[in-house]
Design brief:
With 492 residues, the chain is α+β, with helices and mostly antiparallel strands. 51% of the residues lie in helices and 10% in strands. It is built from 21 helices and 7 strands.
Length: 492
C-alpha cells in the first residue's frame, strides 16, 4: 500500500506548481472571451444557462452578476488564488478557494466543458486533502523562520486515503479510456488517422502525418496498448520506481504528441500534471538533482513539522479521511456505471445531483473512443444592408464555400471549437439549443463595430460537409449545406 499509494512531498510540490500554472493559463484563455461567454450580452446569458441547468446544485458565484466588471472581478480573485497556490502561500486555503472558483466558472458555461476541464477539476478536488505545502513553499519558508519546522533532506512519503484516491483517479482515466477505445476503429488501426483528419481537431503537423498511413496504424495500436497497460503498470508491485519512471516518459511523450497534433486545449498538460504525482522518491534523491534542489529550493528540501501541529488521531483527521473514502467509492461507482452495460444501473450514481453537480464530480473518460461522426465547418453568412455578404467567423471576409485548410483555426480558441462542434448535432445533450443565442451574439458583435450601411439584415449559420461519391472511375466531392439558425434583422 505504501509503495502504490504514497506520494513524495516534492512530487506534491511540483504538482501544486503545475496546477497553479494551468489555472492561470486557463484563466488567461477564458479572459479573452469575458464578454463573449460570461456576460449577459454574450452567447450564454445567465437566463439561457439557467433554463438548461435549473438544478439548485448548479451553483456559481458567476451567476451573481451579468456585467463585464463583475465577471472581471471574479476572474481577478481566481488569478490571485492561483498565484498563491503556485507559490505555496496559505496552501490549503487557496487550494480550496481555487477549487471553488473553478467549479463556479465551469457551472457558469457548462456547454464548453470537455475532458480537460473535468480532469483539472477532479485533480484540484483531491488536492484540497493533500499537504501540497510541505515542500518548496512559502508556507514552509515562513514556518521555518518561525521555528515551527525543520529542514529535512530525505522527506517521508505521504500516505492517506486522498493520495490513494488521486492516484487511482489518474489510473481510471487511462483504464476507462482504453475500455471505450476497444472497438473496430482502434483494432484496425484507423482511429488516429480519422481523428487527425477531423475538421475540429486537425492541426498542420497532423495534416503532414496523414501522408504516412502505416505510421498512423502503428500510432493507433501503440496508443491503444499504452492506455491499456498504464493503469496496471502505474501500480506495478515490483520495481515500482523504475516502471513508473519509464511509463511516465512514455505517457508524457504520448500527451505531448496529442498536444501538438490535435486542437484539444489543455488536456495534454492537465494529464501531465496528474502524472507528476507518480514521480517516485528515487528520482528526487538521484545525485545531481538532489544536490541542486537541496540548495536552491524555496524553504529547503522539505518542511517537516518540528512538533506535531495536529494529532493524526484528531476527529478532524478521521472525518476528512472518511469523506475522502466516501468520495473514492463514489468515483469508482461513477466510472463503472459509465460503461455501456451500466452495471450499477439500479443505483444510477451519476444521478446523485448533490455530488455529481454540486461538487463537480461528474466524469466520463471516453475521449476519442470513436471518430466523431460529423466532420465539417461553419459559414456564418451575413447579408448586410448594402447588399454584400460576409462571413462573421472569418473577420468579415467575403463568403467562401470552400473548405478551409484547417477549419479548427477559424475559432478563437478551443472553447469556441467545443461549442461549435457540439452544436452541429441534434442529440440528447441539447447543445443545438444554443444555435440561435450564438447566432444573435455574432450579429450583435458585428453591428456594434460597424456603421449603419454595414449592419446585418439577414443571417444564416450554416454547417458545411463534404461527401465523397463515386461516378464511374472518378471520386467527386459534393458540398452539403445545413442551415442551423436563421435570423431576420431587417426590421430591427
Amino acid at each position: 500500500m505504501r509503495t502504490w499509494f504514497s506520494i513524495d512531498p516534492r512530487s506534491l510540490a511540483l504538482f501544486r506548481m503545475v496546477l497553479g500554472v494551468l489555472l492561470l493559463a486557463d484563466l488567461f484563455v477564458r479572459a479573452t472571451d469575458l464578454d463573449a461567454m460570461y456576460t449577459d450580452d454574450g452567447m450564454f446569458s445567465r437566463a439561457e444557462i439557467c433554463r438548461r441547468a435549473t438544478s439548485i446544485w448548479n451553483w456559481s458565484f458567476h451567476f451573481g452578476g451579468g456585467s463585464w466588471g463583475y465577471q472581471a472581478m471574479l476572474f481577478g480573485i481566481a488569478a490571485v488564488l492561483a498565484l498563491a497556490l503556485l507559490g505555496g502561500f496559505e496552501t490549503r486555503l487557496v487550494t480550496i478557494g481555487s477549487w471553488l472558483m473553478l467549479v463556479s466558472v465551469h457551472h457558469r458555461v457548462p456547454p464548453i466543458l470537455s475532458g480537460a476541464e473535468n480532469l483539472l477539476r477532479m485533480l484540484l478536488f483531491w488536492a484540497m486533502f493533500l499537504p501540497l505545502g510541505r515542500a518548496w513553499s512559502l508556507d514552509g519558508w515562513l514556518a521555518q523562520r518561525r521555528g515551527q519546522t525543520l529542514r529535512k533532506d530525505e522527506p517521508s512519503p505521504v500516505l492517506s486515503v486522498a493520495t490513494a484516491a488521486v492516484l487511482l483517479q489518474m489510473g481510471f482515466v487511462y483504464l476507462f479510456s482504453a475500455i471505450f477505445k476497444s472497438n473496430e476503429a482502434w483494432w484496425r488501426g484507423e482511429a488516429i488517422a480519422g481523428v487527425l483528419a477531423h475538421s475540429f481537431y486537425a492541426s498542420p503537423p497532423a495534416a503532414y502525418l496523414l501522408h504516412f498511413p502505416q505510421l498512423m496504424k502503428v500510432m493507433t495500436w501503440g496508443t491503444f496498448a499504452l492506455e491499456w497497460a498504464a493503469p496496471f503498470l502505474l501500480f506495478c508491485p515490483r520495481f515500482t520506481a523504475r516502471v513508473r519512471l519509464g511509463l511516465i516518459a512514455a505517457l508524457g511523450a504520448m500527451h505531448l504528441g496529442i498536444g501538438i497534433l490535435l486542437e484539444v486545449g489543455l488536456f495534454s498538460y492537465v494529464s501531465l500534471a496528474g502524472l507528476v504525482l507518480f514521480v517516485p522518491p528515487e528520482f528526487w534523491n538521484s545525485g545531481p538533482l538532489a544536490r541542486f534542489l537541496g540548495t536552491s529550493a524555496v524553504g529547503g528540501p522539505v518542511a517537516e513539522p518540528a512538533r506535531p501541529l495536529a494529532r493524526k488521531s484528531s476527529p478532524v483527521h478521521y472525518a476528512t479521511q472518511a469523506f475522502c473514502l466516501l468520495m473514492l467509492l463514489y468515483m469508482c461507482a461513477l466510472n463503472l456505471n459509465s460503461l455501456p452495460s451500466l452495471p450499477l444501473a439500479p443505483w444510477t450514481p451519476e444521478k446523485w445531483r448533490p455530488l455529481t453537480r454540486g461538487l463537480g464530480f461528474s466524469q466520463m473518460w471516453g475521449m476519442f473512443g470513436s471518430v466523431p461522426s460529423k466532420d465539417g465547418w461553419y459559414v456564418a453568412r451575413a447579408k448586410l444592408q448594402d447588399g454584400s455578404e460576409v462571413d462573421l467567423l472569418r473577420q468579415g471576409a467575403l463568403v467562401d464555400w470552400r473548405k478551409p485548410e484547417f477549419p479548427a483555426r477559424n475559432y478563437p480558441n478551443y472553447y469556441w471549437q467545443k461549442i461549435f462542434r457540439e452544436m452541429a448535432y441534434d442529440d440528447e445533450q441539447g447543445f443545438q439549443l444554443f444555435r440561435v443565442p450564438v447566432a444573435r451574439f455574432l450579429c450583435r458583435r458585428w453591428n456594434k463595430l460597424h456603421p449603419e450601411d454595414k449592419q446585418i439584415a439577414e443571417f444564416e449559420l450554416i454547417y458545411c460537409t463534404l461527401t465523397q461519391t463515386r461516378r464511374g472511375d472518378i471520386t467527386v466531392s459534393e458540398l452539403s449545406r445545413e442551415p442551423l439558425a436563421r435570423l431576420d434583422l431587417s426590421g430591427s
